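[[Sequence with tokens]]
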Amino acid sequence: MNCFSVAEPEPTLQQIIRRTGLPSSTCQRLVQNMVREGFLDREGDRYRIGIGMVRWAAPGTLGLDLVKLVKPVLQQLRDETGETACLYVRDGAFRTVVAVAETRHVVIRPFMVGMVMPLHAGAPGKIFLAHDPDAWSSLSESQMSPFTPATPVSFDVLRKQADEAKEQGFFAAFGERNEDVGSVAAPVFDHAGRLAGVLGLGFPTQRVTPADVPRLGPLVARAAAAASNALAYQGAGG
């Protein structure tokens, strides 16, 4: 793979043989295998990186860029609101924290990188369901456990919540996963207009109540828009 570069993206087989120092027959066999698996593409006597390799590399590259570019936005949102700001990505029926800017309050609900939570409970999950069609296929009503009396456990309720999240640009939830925890979340889009992640605030309900949502919701939505801009999102018409 070191034979391919931005400066020389399409070497010939002979160039690959010379650069690797491998026996001709060995190198030819490896190249043919990689073409067959989609890791290389062939056009005439030249080869280039194939879509299979691009698919492997893209998630890792996006993940690194996503956290790096969005972290300053998280810190600014934390400073603006005083509450813990998190960035989530989806993995099947779950959401995972990939970046955190923690509140400086003494009374906190801990959020740590690597924490995994279900989609159906909490505000961030409603944003995934509102903007990521694949999220629905990962859910099953039979596996949607009720963590508290406020946890939604039916698709009908989730669809209404997802519609509300899409309409207002953010979503707030209180006591769905833990009775004393609330969250407000909004979508982060990438340069292609796809949902790249979800930005959210998490807080104890003794400090933040539903009465605070009209103030916090727009702040989270603006922060998510700033994060989207950092990922080169141009808006619905861009």
